[in-house]
Amino acid sequence: MSTGSSSNENAYIIDAESASEMARLMHQDHLMTERMGGLFPLGIDLSQVHTVLDLACGPGSWVLDVAYEYPAIEIVGTDISNRMIRYAQTRAHTQQLHNASFQVADILQPLDFPANSFDFVNARTLVGFMSPASWPELLRECMRVTRPDGFIRLTELELSLSNSPANEKINALLARAGYLAKRTFSPDGRHIGITPMLGRFLRDVGCKDIQHAAHAIDFSAGSEAQEEFFQNMTAGLDLLRPFLLKMQVITAEEIDLLYQQAMAEIQADDFCAILYFLSVWGRKP
Question: pTM of the predicted model, to two decimals?
Answer without folding.
Answer: 0.91
